[in-house]
Design brief:
single chain, about 190 residues, mainly alpha, Arc Repressor Mutant, subunit A, Tetracycline Repressor, domain 2, 2 domains
Length: about 190
C-alpha cells in the first residue's frame, strides 16, 4: 500500500445508505420520545424496518446511537431554517414554523436529557454543538423578520431559544400541557408594536 493510499479520505456514503441511516435515526428519535432512551433496540429496529444487527453495525453502543440521534435532530433543525425562509410567505411565518420544529426537537432532547447529563465524556460537547448550529439559524430568522418590520428587533436568538426551552419543560409529563401552543404565543408576541 502506498503512503497516498493509507491516507485516502473515506468515501462518502451512497445516497441509499444515507437515507437508510436517516430512517434509522428518525425511528430511534421517535422511540426515544415515546419510550425513553432505554427502549429495547429491537423496538428501534422494528420502527426503522431493519434488524437489530444493522443498528449495532452502525452504532456499537447505546451512547453512539444517542449521540447520533441528537446530532441528526440538530442538523435537521438547522437545515430547515434557510428552507423555511425561502418558502414561507413572510419571515415571521418562517420563524414560527422553525420554532415548531425547534419545539419538536426539544421534546426529543428532553427525552435524552438525563442521559446527556451523565458522566459519559461523549455527551459533553453536544450542548456546544447545539448552540453553535442553532443559534445562527435562529439569528438569521429573527433578523429577516425584524428587517422586514414584522417583529420587534430587541430579542436575541439565545433569549428566544432559552424561553422556548423553558416553556417545554414538563410538557412530556403532562398531556394537557401544549408547549408548541405556548411557544407559538411567544412568537406571535414578537410582532412589531403598532
Amino acid at each position: 500500500m502506498t503512503d497516498g493510499e493509507q491516507h485516502a479520505a473515506p468515501r462518502p456514503k451512497r445516497a441509499d445508505a444515507r437515507r437508510n441511516a436517516e430512517t434509522l435515526l428518525d425511528a430511534a428519535a421517535a422511540v426515544f420520545v415515546a419510550s425513553g432512551v432505554d427502549a429495547p433496540v429491537r423496538d428501534i429496529a422494528a420502527a426503522a424496518g431493519v434488524g437489530t444487527a444493522t443498528i449495532y453495525r452502525h452504532f456499537p453502543t447505546r451512547a453512539d446511537l444517542i449521540v447520533a440521534v441528537y446530532r441528526h435532530q440538530v442538523e435537521a433543525c438547522a437545515e430547515a431554517g434557510p428552507a423555511l425562509l425561502a418558502e414561507a410567505p413572510t419571515a415571521h411565518e418562517a420563524l414560527r414554523r422553525w420554532m415548531d420544529l425547534f419545539v419538536d426537537f426539544l421534546a426529543t432532547k428532553h427525552g435524552l436529557a438525563a442521559v446527556l447529563q451523565s458522566d459519559d465524556p461523549g455527551f459533553a460537547p453536544l450542548h456546544a454543538y447545539f448552540l453553535d448550529r442553532l443559534v445562527p439559524v435562529c439569528t438569521e430568522l429573527l433578523g429577516a423578520a425584524a428587517g422586514a418590520g414584522e417583529i420587534r428587533s430587541d430579542i436575541t436568538a439565545y433569549e428566544l431559544m432559552r424561553g422556548a426551552g423553558n416553556l417545554c419543560i414538563g410538557a412530556e409529563d403532562n398531556p394537557r400541557y401544549d408547549a408548541r401552543r405556548l411557544v407559538g404565543l411567544l412568537v406571535t408576541g414578537l410582532g412589531a408594536p403598532n
